[in-house]
Design goal:
The complex is a heterodimer of chains A (324) and B (433). Chain A has 324 residues and is α/β, with parallel strands linked by helices. Helices cover 37% and strands 14% of the residues of chain A. Chain A has a five-stranded parallel β-sheet. In chain A, strands 2-1-3-4 form a four-stranded parallel β-sheet. In chain A, helix 7 links the parallel strand 5 and strand 6. In chain A, helix 6 packs across helix 7. Chain A is globular. In chain B, helix 4 links the parallel strand 9 and strand 10. In chain B, the strands form four sheets. In chain B, strands 1, 2, 3, 4, 5, 16, 17 and 18 form an eight-stranded mixed β-sheet that branches. With 433 residues, chain B is of the alpha/beta class. The chains are: A alpha/beta (324), B alpha/beta (433). The interface between A and B is medium-sized, with 23 and 20 residues.
Amino acid sequence: MTSAALNFTFPFRDLLGIEGLSAADITNLLDLADTYVDLNRQIDKKTNILRGRTQINLFFESSTRTQSSFELAGKRLGADVMNMSVSSSALNKGETLLDTAVTLNAMNPDLLVIRHGDSGAVALLAQKVSCAVLNAGDGAHEHPTQALLDALTIRRRLGKLSGLKIAICGDITHSRVARSNLLLFNAMGAQVNLVGPRTLIPADAERLGANIYHTMREGLEGCDIVMMLRIQNERMQGALVPSVREYYHLYGLNREKLAFAKPHALVMHPGPMNRGAEIDSDLADDTEVSLIRDQVEMGVAVRMATLEALAANLPNMMQSGGTS
Amino acid sequence: MAEPERAFVNARLIDPAQSLDTPGNLLVRDGIIIALGPDIEIPDSAETLDCSGLAILPGLIDMQVFTGEPGEEHRETLATASLAAAAGGVTHMVVMPNTTPAIDDAALVDFISRRARGTAMVRVHPMAAITKNCEGRIMTEFGLLREAGAVAFTDGDRAVMNALTMRRALSYASNFDALIVQHALDQDLQSAGVMHEGELATRLGLTGIPVAAETAIIDRDIRLVELTGARYHISQISSGESVEAVRQAKARGLAVSCGVSAAHLMLNENDVENYRSFAKLNPPLRSEDDRLALVDGLADGTIDIVVSGHNPQDAEAKRQPFAQAAYGTVGVETLLSVLLSLHHANGLDLATLIRAVTTRPAQLLDIDGGTLHTGACADFALVDMEAPWIVDADALKSKSKNAAIEGRKLQGRVEACFVNGQSVFDSKTETTK
């Protein structure tokens, strides 16, 4: 495949979140990603759309799957990809986040993929660099490519997003996946239920355009999709939830609880899974109902689409030469 | 030899302590106000300054100013804070004890006083810590600290969390009729919270601080005030529910008072939209309903004091991801202008606003100041009550430029400031940058 001009306009320099994207923006990205799903299933998966471009994956929080997904996406588009993992201890040596930004900026990257443990950190960095920034997850704020890959997964299986009823279950408070998905599903006309114990639902969540439920029975009723979120072990040791076994008993997804949803409802999980905590292992592996493996595949395609959409807005001349 | 009198003529004299708001003249000799009023006689020997178009206000008492001295002089020194104060018409700065080291020993109170005398343009009154190193455990020597010059006791930006420690501090302070000043924020309820809890925090993915983190401490402390009879002051309240709690305590006759910061009267939680860490304050900016309740509480006298909460932070400490950014805003230079803007824009009674930064803090802290009475020290500000201006943080005098109200339009500005009859700020001789 050779480089072709983007057949739509993506009117943003950066992709910092789903917030601000229109239904048309989202649809354009999903349509483009669809073409990459097909490409990724061929033997020759390589294009030259990003040839000459430098993509830096800057991860302040370790993440095997998201980082490798972005790496693969960049490489398949022909970019030079560099991975940088910055442990938080390195920052404690005195270099501030903005020092890091200035240093990286001097390396003239074209695309910067950033994950950071603090909400808003990626937006802060984006203000200080002159390249396109892609948010790979900031704190409990947003994780836009996850929402897009979830949407693509659903759209390919069910043919649409609008009119669907989707339950997002678990630790909503600490989940950037929940926030980005809620924004995206709302934008595309799907209805979202947030389900979890009161200690894991943030204040005024209902004002974000979702229905709030505290039992799986009520929350899953009539749902086409049941999306489970990962719950951190340290949050199930009495701080927010008394124990893993109580959490699994009340909120862990198994076939019995899945039966509260629509017949043939599908199961999703952004990974990595805590089998036996938020999801039953057997259910997670049942490809009849579980879309979890599809999600990983769609991840690469969606990241290729977002990288390409941002790259299309990059200037073609070197800025440092004064010709911008 | 006595110096000649100086006459400030054709001014508008505003002094709520004397229920005064009249055109007139003010006469100063040897650093003392010797006469004021519409018809006072101006001696021929007097040096005369025409103040047409300007008001003369008593120098402000700012009851909550953090500086970095000692320990963090890169943020602010007593000297640099005093320059900002003078430019804002603040002639009395009450400085906070949560420095490094904390002001928890009589020798350190003495250190602040000596440094202030040597370097500061305005009067400086230290508060001392309630507990050693502001850690909330071991009570400090209230008696010795008072004798050394501490005007009140506070642990700065930390609440005394242990109820028994607080009871004992209140009880012991009542021996001396000393004022205990609480930073009412329950650290356990705050937990990792960094902004007002609610829809915006949820949307931004930031941990919220519930209003209950403030009211839980206030409600507890009011019980302890009933038990001990002590004088108790909340340095800053941020919510409508806190206004109501204080209103009820006052109705019951308790010696409870409270303050609010100028920023909380002007801004609300939406100012932290887009992770704007310059509006990250402690206590946090809350909802617009809360802000309106604070303005009402100030208007009806439930809120006694307005402070700047001046808390200088260098840019590096502020330009961080929101959760990691430092709390606080500078404000001593803009305190009066914010109040005058509230008067102009919201019709708040001018005398009530001025009392909250003059006579009321003077009463609570038992310090001389905040009035233009004959015989009082000549600490006052010349103010253009109408002048519109826009806050430009870089033009502020504080060493740190973290202004939460950056870019805001204000109305009313200090033209000159005097301490002991001596000029400490004059906008005309300022070199504009």
